[in-house]
Design goal:
The chain has 485 residues and is α/β, with parallel strands linked by helices. The protein has helices at residues 18-24, 31-42, 59-69, 83-96, 107-111, 113-118, 131-143, 219-222, 231-244, 261-274, 291-299, 314-319, 326-339, 356-368, 386-393, 423-438, 441-451, 453-468; strands spanning 2-7, 46-51, 73-77, 101-105, 124-126, 153-157, 160-163, 190-193, 197-200, 202-204, 207-208, 227-228, 249-252, 279-284, 302-310, 342-349, 373-378, 398-400, 416-418.
């Protein structure tokens, strides 16, 4: 069967910042689609992948591509912010290309399977891990024997949505073939890499799932428990990336890379034994790292590491079940600074119990850390997260404004208010926080040095223009008395 997999346009997620995002955002490789593609190719199917933003295709253009490629089946993946775009693509495919089978998968459908299926003009839904499910679905369609026995899918029968029983999690991740990266234009996934400038990057995972109960996260909806890959299998994939694909910067997409210390140490030892030369980065937690472990990772190419700080107020960290302390974050960033590692962090505004004062504390804490880059988001209660139920219940002063999932983007929009913070306050504070963090002289100097004068100037101008364009940067009329320092 000829199969086309689509990653829908994502720039809308950035809202009023999308013009800047086109310049400065680092494209994320759709690793999930590459895994699906590999599973299908292994069974003899002809697979193509379109990543709309990287391939510079809008919705109408990608639907035109369907006519050029003439697939038998089109599959689209979607997180909650991209669900609307995914459904639009699928609707146009059904309208313009009669006879093409359509499939929707991804986090949003997994979190809200019946609702997502009911509101989308699509033939089949795949919920949960998709590698085994999509292969069985395609085989059943080819045989014409019906799909009633295929676990992990939704479909329509007599106008009603039918949900088959869930599929068990894949027990051995090492049985899944390496992601089909050859189906992407890998050279277009360019990131600014410390010490290298702009370089092609690809992604890898060493495990699936996360044991931590952070209320804003929906990863447990897709991966209810943690499973690990064997060290040898991980390093085999790294060797394939570096040697066969010629890519020498890798992003580890694990939610918490250092969850299992012995796995990471073993991986580093095997990389060293094979004399693989590449740089890499990943995400972790301050309570799952030591200075010695960071040193070991740096010896085999670690150049950048990211932590989800989320808030500068300990009461809020406890309320969102982060399981970490402000002191742990500060210590972790100091270790990274001492070792010469570039660092990133993410924070959110609008948590339960958030107030004007706690926002001030968060931004002050962020600016006090030895961190080079920050992602400042507005908290979003995504389906599948405990935060959505908290917002519905009014926990910690939250007020849920809408369940229109197309509005659930973390930049330039808020779907919750909390205590004395209105939607407009949160949108404004996000802009102010970005300016406060990035326009400090030493951060400006660092980015000039890292990216080069011309590139840094273009990036800064695009970013600042995006802040000033959507809304007047004057204080919201009701809050002229605010003093943020």
């Amino acid at each position: 069967m000829r199969i086309l997999l689509i990653n829908p346009p994502a720039m809308e997620v950035y809202g009023p910042y999308k013009s800047a995002a086109r310049v400065v955002a680092q494209p994320q490789m759709p690793l999930g689609l590459c895994y699906i593609g590999a599973a299908l190719e292994q069974c003899g199917h002809q697979v193509s992948i379109i990543d709309c933003d990287v391939d510079k295709l809008g919705i109408s253009q990608v639907v035109d591509k369907v006519g050029e490629l003439y697939p038998d089946l089109v599959g689209v993946t979607a997180t909650t912010p991209l669900y609307r775009n995914a459904c639009h693509i699928l609707s146009l495919v059904k309208e313009r290309h009669k006879g093409v089978i359509t499939v929707l998968g991804g986090y949003h459908l997994t979190a809200l399977p019946l609702e997502a299926m009911a509101h989308c003009a699509v033939d089949y839904g795949v919920y949960g891990e998709g590698e085994e499910t999509i292969v069985e679905l395609v085989e059943a369609l080819e045989r014409g024997t019906g799909v009633g026995e295929v676990r992990g899918i939704l479909y329509r029968r007599d106008g009603e949505v039918v949900m088959n029983p869930p599929r068990p999690l894949i027990s051995d991740l090492d049985e899944i073939p390496f992601p089909a990266r050859h189906l992407l234009r890998c050279q277009r996934y360019l990131w600014s890499v410390p010490g290298k400038g702009w370089q092609p990057v690809t992604a890898i995972v060493t495990q699936r799932g996360c044991p931590y109960p952070c209320v804003f996260c929906s990863v447990r909806t897709m991966f209810p428990r943690v499973r690990y890959r064997r060290v040898e299998h991980i390093v085999n994939e790294i060797e394939h990336i570096v040697t066969d694909l010629g890519i020498d910067h890798i992003q580890f997409q694990d939610d918490t890379l250092t969850l299992k210390t012995e796995k990471v140490v073993g991986m580093c030892e095997e990389i060293k034994r094979r004399k693989l030369r590449f740089t890499w980065e990943g995400y972790t937690r301050p309570d799952r790292i030591t200075k010695d472990l960071l040193k070991t990772m740096k010896e085999v190419g670690l150049v950048r590491i990211s932590f989800g700080v989320e808030s500068g107020n300990q009461r809020i960290l406890d309320a969102i079940k982060k399981g970490a302390t402000l002191e742990q974050y500060r210590r972790a960033y100091e270790w990274c600074d001492e070792l010469g590692l570039e660092t990133r962090c993410s924070v959110m505004l609008g948590h339960p119990f958030e107030t004007r004062e706690t926002v001030k504390q968060t931004i002050a804490f962020l600016c006090s850390l030895k961190v080079h880059q920050a992602y400042i988001n507005i908290a979003m209660p995504y389906p599948g997260s405990a935060l959505l139920e908290m917002a519905r219940a009014g926990y910690g002063g939250l007020r849920l404004l809408t369940e229109d999932w197309g509005e659930y983007r973390r930049y330039g929009n808020a779907v919750m208010e909390v205590n004395d913070l209105t939607r407009e306050d949160l949108i404004w504070l996000q802009k102010w926080a970005y300016l406060k963090f990035y326009l400090r002289p030493h951060i400006v100097y660092y980015n000039l040095k890292r990216a080069g004068l011309k590139a840094a100037f273009i990036n800064v101008m695009a970013f600042v223009a995006s802040l000033f364009k959507p809304l007047n940067l004057g204080w919201p009329a009701a809050h002229h008395d605010w003093n943020l320092g």
